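Q: Got a minute? One more chain.
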Amino acid sequence: MERKAIGTHSVFYAQVEATRLGDEPAETLIWFDRGFHSLVATVKPDEA
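A: Always. Here it is, folded:
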């Protein structure tokens, strides 16, 4: 993993070692346009 300071933020660069797909919708939180936004993935693995 690598960490870089960019202005007032720290950015982490990392390599994905594994992924896991399940039957439940995935939910995540992102920062965009100066605010947090909730995202929910509704695509099932067999539809991707």
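A: The chain is about 0% helix and 50% strand.
Q: Perfect, thanks.
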